[in-house]
Automatic annotation (TrEMBL):
One of its GO terms (biological process) is vesicle budding from membrane. It comes from Brassica campestris (Field mustard). GO terms for cellular component: cytoplasmic side of plasma membrane; ESCRT III complex; multivesicular body. It comes from the Eukaryota. InterPro entries: Snf7_fam. This is Uncharacterized protein.
Length: 156
């Protein structure tokens, strides 16, 4: 037994013990390195998942924009349909014969007003006593009244 104790106390045995301690620390370091590598792999995996989620968010955002555009298009088409239906109803309510009749009445009233204005021009010139003859010019639509001196013109 003493011999066994001497063997343990032998300097070469101390070297072996030291080597075993170094191996244990290297093994521990190796385990830490492997754990660090595993952590880096998980970190890379998480970063890839974050990037993938970001891409999903962009796709969802693009889809939201497309849906808003589609909604605006549908609203525009609905407004155009409503406008077309309203215009069609208005055209049904308006008869072309009624439009022609209304235009004829307007033209008739315009002609009546012109005749009244011509009659008033002649009356004013006669009333003033300065008319030799009223001239009704079709192109210019005016009556010229002449004074006896032929120097004064009265345009109505």
């Amino acid at each position: 037994m003493n011999k066994e104790l001497d063997d343990v106390s032998d300097p070469s045995d101390a070297f072996l013990l030291e080597e075993m301690g170094d191996l244990a620390s290297k093994e521990k370091s190796l385990k830490e390195v492997e754990a660090a590598i595993q952590c880096l792999k998980r970190k890379r995996l998480y970063e890839q998942q974050v990037e993938q989620l970001g891409n999903f968010q962009l796709c969802i955002h693009d889809q939201m924009i497309m849906l808003e555009g589609a909604k605006a298009t549908i609203e525009t088409v609905d407004a155009l349909r409503t406008g077309a239906a309203t215009m069609k109803a208005m055209q049904k309510a308006t008869n072309i014969d009624d439009v022609d009749k209304t235009m004829d009445e307007i033209n008739e009233q315009t002609d009546n007003m012109k005749q009244i204005q011509d009659a008033l021009k002649t009356t004013i010139c006669v009333f003033l006593g300065i008319v030799k003859k009223p001239l009704n010019l079709k192109k210019q639509q005016e009556t010229r009244c002449f004074d006896d001196d032929d120097d004064v013109f009265l345009f109505l």
